[in-house]
Design a protein that fits this description.
This protein has 292 residues and is an alpha/beta fold. The protein has 12 helices and 5 strands. The chain is globular, with a radius of gyration of 22 Å.
Length: 292
Amino acid sequence: MKKINHRDFMVSNTIKLSKIPTTFDLNESEKKIEAALEETREKLGKLQDTLYAHGKYAVLVCLQGMDTAGKDSLIREVFKDFNTRGIIVHSFKVPTALELGHDYLWRHYIALPQRGKFGVFNRTHYENVLVTRVHPEYIMGENIPHINTVEDINDAFWEQRFEQIRNFEKHIAENGTLIYKFYLHLSKEEQKNRLLRRLEKKEKNWKFSAGDLKERKLWDQYQDCYQDAINRTSLPHAPWYVIPADNKPVARYIVAKTLYTTLKEYDDIQEPELDNKTKANLDLYKQELENE
């Protein structure tokens, strides 16, 4: 199988999404790719146990992508071997009345993983510079001071919001959260195929929404917004990875491999050692139990 180098997918310079392929050939059968994923996620699961015991880092995995990009199934397959006490998944939908009563980052901040745990954001705080940028009228529901009409939402507004997001990520990174942002890069043709499958297969009908077709008509606008967001916010402490997503098993494997390879670089993540007194008395404790 072709070796994966996570740096090939990490955004470290200005990118054009239209120039980045949505496929990646691992030169292997789907069965062997799935076997490689299984092996990697087992290692990732063991690493998560160590991270939990260590208790000094949190890991935040952010997943973004167009409708049908495969976020849900990727979460299911990549994190299957995690201990449930060490991971929590948040799927962010349209903001509730309670959430709209706070600033737009509030609901994301309170969902952050605590030290020792993984948090997965299925759709993220970036929705606030993606869907709201394509549909600026949604901003009006936030009831922000000095934003009285859609015309008030100008370039300066978006620059301020990007700065707020960069500051948010810088703050949590400086306090022990390891941030991974994955954009599942799907082609328009593959999205069409996946939407058709939702219509053609009865068991997948529930996934389909007429709104998906309305948003599909805005494909180019979304691509421009994703490209801008990625270019403005991919930083060493919070990098973006653009993952070819036309083939789901390949995308899952790349994400799992990236997480495992980069987390292994933190060689300070170790299970804590027993204190000297406890270590010195291990045989005594063992004898006490055996003599019950």
